[in-house]
């Protein structure tokens, strides 16, 4: 994978994705090593993020590398009208690898075409977030022992959630069954459903969260954003339908694990946090190992 | 002290406080060492700070450790409604130690209860600022040769100043005499005065700065904040009463040293800066050594 | 140069300037070394910058040093009314070298007078930007093989552009000829022209960009800022006169190179980016090597 950009999860084959997960396991065992000394990674966050930015920071720092960049654009030349192209060319002169988040769909792909160093897409608009997808896969494999033949429930905003789209597409390589719980306004887009059908896999659409809890191996919760709704009453209705509480987990599988890309607002009640089925905080930690695997593979030091 | 949080100065016994001061002395002699390599410290500043943040940065960097975090919340998930609990759990997954400043009283204590790594409170609202307290103690001991039996004058805003409250309480262990200079509106709270009385120590309240200058070993100046006053005329009156100028130091002890937690606005006139009795800039530097002592003790590398 | 501040390009003699360029060449060959371990450089950007800040970050990080500081003042004590003097004294206690950008002319000189560590001026208002000047000189020497006897065209805002003023003055030591292209409102200030005359060198003023393209060895483009003009129609007229396009380069010297301090807005059309005469991106990269030469010389590790 040396010197390759990661813009969409589909840029890496199934075998390459599994290779990253395997390598991430070795970083989970030994996250602190001196293998990135002298390397500089640029973190360019044109759109705010805490988790993704800090986990890349930690991933690189624990391996002895250095991080430069910005957490928002307020103090950058973007404010003076500098184009994305010029910013990326500049930063590719200063670093060995660029991690970028940007509000516009397609911006990461464009950046990879003008950059002299590889780009890792850390989220471009509603489009792709492939490192989140890989850490989700890592979390599923780790808790279930496999990625094959699982019942995966996705809950909440399936229309705009870039992490959902990436993960559904990745899991179509592993013969999973998809349980899609959303309000009618926020159904999974047809383009993504087509991917499921092409692999001749099953998917079922639900409006009630309760219906999928007894059958799911994984419940992947997402945040529903108020601003997606034109009618506030409609929002209030669905908002309350998708709050997962501890007492709703009675009757669920012993091996069920609950994931969430975080941040959450209220869609997972805090009374679940101490339930062994809650895995979202460990999931976020797994992001460090997956990002260490990606950065070292792309820089060619592993 | 390994793995213990420091939220209030009272979390450490008198002996432990002295242990930190002794260790800080060794860091003053040798501030650059490679003993934190591979360690990641998170600096989470939910409220702005230059001095405290940069001195922790320097303390950790000079010892070979790495720093992640944020200088304000504008580019973080706090803006998306993420709870303090979730932010702290996330960051405790990414780091070995969390340094945090937060505008709300009690937030640091709460964070220490949900975090899997130790927390150092770098200021929580008007409540506590224990690392400032330790560097103040270090500065007093260094300039006076002892912490025992001193005449300490506190000047300015004694009501809201968290550094004053912490330092007064810490010094009640050392048989000091307290000279409290403030406008009537900004007197030391009764709760803090109770601590002095419990140890059967003396305190005297003043309204005139001039009255304490001949007797003090230490004058601890603070900034009076305009926004504390409902009547702007009242503010203007007291503001001018508490500006320390070089000519006012005639007749003060040769060994007098002037401290200030900084930033100052106008309460210490710049004509004092070159007087050997001015110690506030060196005091700020001492913060690096005290923080090196704290971080290495809590991480257990010393 | 050990322990000396660099505020104006004139603080270094012609020989010292050449010494920095020679040292920068060695860093271009080997930019990653472990010679700044244990050193802390403070980057204080009171005014936003991407390029200058990130290139100092990279320069120091690739040599094993650590960087502390701030990218803007929104989260600093400057907001609480702290004076520049106090901020600089504080930071000089925490670091071995301060790099600062500030909106006010003369602020860097003042800072160097109160600081206990050397200051590198990274731009103070419309006054000076000496590290930009040195990287411009490096870029000219590298592409032309010499700094002597060249025809240098400066284009655009010659009145307010601090990089133009510094570079013109530096090049008067090298017997260059100056071709000054600007709208009447934005001519090179008389004070700078006096420097040229004192050395008995030639300068010619133009209003048409086309006139200098056939004779120039270097075309140094600058951004014209709309806010300089009281009459918007006047601005629109000159704005279009100074857009350099690829087809305008027919008839120019084979050895011509186009420089720009960046960021650009539209004054160099992107159709030039792939022309071998476009050198502005490489010019920005050269900034890393020049800054490595400066930092290591001033810290005395070379």
Give the end-to-end Cα distance of chain A, rounded to a whole number of Å: 10 Å
Strand order of the largest sheet of chain A: 7-6-5-8-9
Instruction: Give the oligomeric state of the chains in this entry, treating copies of one chain as homo and distinct chains as hetero.
Output: homotrimer
- Full CATH superfamily name of the largest domain in chain A: Aspartate/ornithine carbamoyltransferase
| SSE topology string of chain A | HEHEHEHEHEHEHEEHEH
What's the total number of strands of chain A?
9
What's the level 1 CATH class of the largest domain in chain A? Alpha Beta
* Helix share, percent of chain A: 25-40%
Class from secondary-structure proportions of chain A? alpha/beta
What does this entry look like structurally?
The structure is a homotrimer of 302-residue chains. With 302 residues, the first copy, chain A, is α/β, with parallel strands linked by helices. The longest helix of chain A has 20 residues, at 280-299. In chain A, α3 (84-94) packs across α4. In chain A, β8, α8 (232-241) and β9 form a beta-alpha-beta unit. The first copy, chain A, starts with 13 loop residues before the first helix and ends with a helix. The first copy, chain A, is built from 9 helices and 9 strands. In chain A, the strands form 2 sheets. A 5-stranded parallel β-sheet of chain A has the order 7-6-5-8-9, with helices on one face. The model of chain A has no long low-confidence stretch (mean pLDDT 94). Chain A has 2 domains: 9-128 and 287-299, Aspartate/ornithine carbamoyltransferase (Rossmann fold, 3-Layer(aba) Sandwich), CATH 3.40.50.1370; 131-283, Rossmann fold (3-Layer(aba) Sandwich). Chain A is globular, with a radius of gyration of 19 Å. Chain A has helices at 14-29, 51-62, 84-94, 107-114, 130-144, 162-171, 190-198, 232-241, 280-299; strands spanning 40-45, 66-70, 97-102, 119-124, 151-155, 177-181, 203-206, 218-221, 257-259. Chain A is 37% helix and 15% strand. At the B-C interface, α2 and α9 of B face β2 and α3 of C.
């Amino acid at each position: 994978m040396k010197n390759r950009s990661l813009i969409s999860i589909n840029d890496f084959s199934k075998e390459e994705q599994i290779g990253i997960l395997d390598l991430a396991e070795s970083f989970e065992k030994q996250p602190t090593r001196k293998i990135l000394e002298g390397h500089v990674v640029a973190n360019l966050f044109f759109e705010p993020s805490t988790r993704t930015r800090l986990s890349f920071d930690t991933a690189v720092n624990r391996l002895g590398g250095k991080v430069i960049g910005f957490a928002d654009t307020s103090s950058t030349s973007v404010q003076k009208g500098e184009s994305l192209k010029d910013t990326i060319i500049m930063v590719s002169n200063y670093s060995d690898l660029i991690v970028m988040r940007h509000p516009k769909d397609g911006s990461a792909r464009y950046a990879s075409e003008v950059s002299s160093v590889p780009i890792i897409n850390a989220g471009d608009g509603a489009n792709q977030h492939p490192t989140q997808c890989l850490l989700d896969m890592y979390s599923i494999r780790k808790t279930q022992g496999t990625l094959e033949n699982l019942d995966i429930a996705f809950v909440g905003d399936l229309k705009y959630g870039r992490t959902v789209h990436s993960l559904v597409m990745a899991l179509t390589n592993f013969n999973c069954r998809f349980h899609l719980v959303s309000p009618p306004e926020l159904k999974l887009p047809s383009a993504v459903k087509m991917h499921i059908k092409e692999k001749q896999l099953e998917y079922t659409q639900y409006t009630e969260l309760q219906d999928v809890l007894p059958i799911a191996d994984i419940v992947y919760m997402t945040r529903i954003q108020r601003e997606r709704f034109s009618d506030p009453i409609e929002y209030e209705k669905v908002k309350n339908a998708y709050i997962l509480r501890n007492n709703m987990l009675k009757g669920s599988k012993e091996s069920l694990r609950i994931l969430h890309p975080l941040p959450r607002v209220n869609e997972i009640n805090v009374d679940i946090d101490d339930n062994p089925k809650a895995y979202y905080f460990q999931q976020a930690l797994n992001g460090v190992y997956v990002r260490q695997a990606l950065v070292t593979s792309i820089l060619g030091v592993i």
